[in-house]
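Subject: Cytochrome c1, heme protein, mitochondrial-like structure
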Amino acid sequence: MSSVLTKSFSSKHILLAQRYRNIQKHQISNFSKMKKVVLGGTGLFGAAGVITTIAVSRQAHASEDEIHPPSYPWEHKPLLSTLDRASVRRGFQVYQQVCAACHSLKYIAFRNLVGETHTEEEAKALAAEVMVEDGPNENGKMFQRPGKLSDYMPSPYANDEEARKANNGALPPDLSNVVLGRHGEEDYIFSLLTGYYDPPEGVEIAEGQYFNAYFPGQAIGMAQALYNEIIEYEDGTPATQSQLAKDVSTFLRWTSEPHHDTRKLYGFRALLFSAIFFPLLWYHKKRVFSMIKSKKIAYKA
């Protein structure tokens, strides 16, 4: 009887051992597959990192010949500073009389000027100077009407093809968000507008292009637009080239970020609230949790 039990126990032990070995082999195979997947993924990420590093280094090397715009002391850059509304209004005048001939502001409506650069009556008068296509009317036809505050700034061209044809194949960019869309922001815009020079000796510029030290490649399809006294400011400010560039750059900062001043105001309020609230929260935490940390509980056996 004991020999039968012994054989039965040993056979069960052998079966359990075989099952354990099979489980181990299955786990090892799964682990090796997972290891291969992990190593493969690591290799792919490593290769992608190397390629990205090479691309960035090549781009940086290619941009070594470009002149980066200097950092100018803009009045609205400090944390507690706001946009100079007089400069923004003058910048709109520069855009209206110089830039609007080629560039659009398709995301800015006349109503956006109210309370920012113009009064409501002035904005209505500006809108009324523009004829806007509307309709259809009761006869099913489109018609022209004077602009309203709800209308957006008109584009100088009907479509991109017309714009390219009028500018030697170059498409003038929309200026609504141009400051936020350029590295260097208003520093770049100011430098670009004042960066026209005669080409250095040995540098050839194609017909219809102009040398600009701050434009990538130094050859730009836009001719110099700002000159001394090219317009006359309403407020009598001397219209030098640098003043014109400064004002239109400030205006384009406003078009790119109409809530610039509101954002800074809310940020200042948040900092002020945090300066008061977080010390009180820290004191409350110390007061409450100090009792919990120092509390001792004795249990009777």
